[in-house]
Design a protein that fits this description.
Layout lengths: L1 H5 L1 H21 L6 H27 L1 H7 L3 H30 L7 H71 L5 H17 L6 E2 H19 L3 E6 L8 E2 L3 H12 L8 E8 L2 E7 L13 H13 L4 E4 L3 E7 L5
Parallel strand pairs: 2-4
Antiparallel strand pairs: 1-3, 4-5, 5-7, 6-7
Helix pairs in contact: 2-3, 3-5, 3-6, 5-6, 6-7, 6-10, 7-8, 8-9
Amino acid sequence: MKFQRYFRKIAVWSTLAITFFFMLNRAVDGEYRDILQASIDFLVLCTYAVLIWQFNFWLDTQEPKLKRVFSSSGARLFLQSAISLLVGVLLVVVVEIIVHETIKEEKAPLVFFIFRGILINIILQILFYAVRSVYQIQQVQVTNAQLMEMSAKAQMDLLRQQVNPHFLFNALNTLKTLVKSNNPNAQDFIVQLADVYRYLLQNNQKEKVSLREDLSIARSYASLIHARFEDNFKLEVNLSPEVYETYTPPNTFQLLIENAVKHNIIGAGKALLVEIYSNEGHIIIRNNLQPKRTVEHTTGLGLENIRQRYQLLSNREVKVVKEEKYFEVWLPVLSEK
């Protein structure tokens, strides 16, 4: 039924085109005596085409039954083509005999009209199977695209689920440190942590968010880091106004700041500077490199998570540059929501 609806217009226009083509040939040769004879010929030609199209549509609906008998697609196609051709010829013969025996008076022999009908049948069979092949290819492409989209969404859901425990694990460790040291900023830290985590929960089901919004929550997260390390940690942002109107996977900047804090020494004489700026269609997150010898409580999800999410969203790679004194992550600008 889908096939019939999809190609109804093709069936109608092909029927009219073939009908007028064969009628034009006869008209040029002066074979029509009057309008009545031309009208009868028009109806006969249309009858061929309509019956042949309808039979082919019906035969196409029987393909599931043929699959149970013939596993080979080539065998099914050959059988369907042979049946269509034979039935089409039979329809032509029956129609021409009925017309000639009732209302049609033609000088040309009956075999001429039967041959003409068989030729129309062959043309329509070729057109039908060519069109059906194109339709089936399109359906396969649509199905593959849907499967790819479902796969990408499933991967994105998995990555989003990984972000929550990753963030919470590290945030609670930081809170534990503040509480154990009786830091007076602990209460403010809890409030800001609640804001950051509320943002994460609210945007957990989104693939992209406004860069302005994600950067704003990253600043809040940086305040949490500053509460712990004071002046030994600093975040600097220098982005052009148009970059703020682009998009990013949620929690991207927070994860990269967290990654920098987790892997680098921070302390007196070892201040950590995280810079965010734009260059050559990328947003660059850069920090001075002073790596720890060992990294505790790492899950390994942060940077790889971001790489995979950008790959799924834009098919563009996240570039990582590690120099002697600096570590940089180049994020492609996502300009479409």
